[in-house]
């Protein structure tokens, strides 16, 4: 048993009236002891549920990110004029609405904007459809690549994927605890802000509940993160909704305000107010293939809505409307499909090269 960890557990787990927030340094130490399994299983489970009940604060999330930076993997800087976008999405996947972020990532890469994604397999508590399965259905398998191989793919194509079971097994072990306690602990919030890139990055963090955005802002401020976007997205993802106003926070460098607020109404850009439901993985993949072929559909509308926003946000296009037009042109011309084929080919070359050396 770790006596040092027990003291931190007592601090967050003493009840509504006597529990205390951790300092940034304490939160980092607790996370480090959890990842390294220096705390006992009983201590870890108790901490995760107690911290959820207490509710985290931004300073604590900043400390947790410090530990992830220390112990976790990072893709190294690549030669690019664009600031790398890191898309933070819930690791436990999607169950109700069709995800579009892989198409968004391909579109951005085709336009010269590098993107990093991260996640694992079907994970608790939702056990929803994860990114890695969608990529596999599109012909891109990230699961067997080492970090060095992923770096090669990232350098050649502008797209990288940190796959937790392969690249960050210390964090992967924690999902058994999540399953047993049956609730998302504050680690699930922190992961949305995690940046597994050693260079200049722009972090895009999705969320569901408004208080989460406030925690994001505090954690980013504490850590000196200057470039970020917060999105009240579908199921906590970075995907912009079509059934309601998209609420978006933009980091600002030359303002006394913590963020600039955007309220984007889909109807104002010609989109209907309808989210595409997630019926099955097969149905989604078929719909995504149609989008890649430039065919009109409801999912194409979602792809254009998201693509237009992110092409503007990364600076490729001067405004959202021109971003939508560019997204449509890229999809109909086959440029996005070509980007997907390039990624598949590079992964094939990387894996064959390793096999030949072995």
Concise overview:
The chain is an alpha/beta fold. 50% of the residues lie in helices and 10% in strands. The protein is built from 16 helices and seven strands.
Explain the overall architecture.
This protein is α/β, with parallel strands linked by helices. The protein is built from 16 helices and seven strands. Helix 5 links the parallel strand 1 (84-88) and strand 2.
Secondary-structure blueprint:
Elements: H1 3-12, H2 24-35, H3 41-54, H4 58-71, E1 84-88, H5 101-110, E2 115-119, H6 131-137, H7 147-157, E3 159-163, H8 164-167, H9 169-172, H10 175-181, H11 186-191, E4 201-206, H12 210-223, E5 228-231, E6 246-251, E7 259-264, H13 281-292, H14 298-313, H15 320-333, H16 335-357
Parallel strand pairs: 1-2, 1-4, 2-3, 4-5
Antiparallel strand pairs: 5-6, 6-7
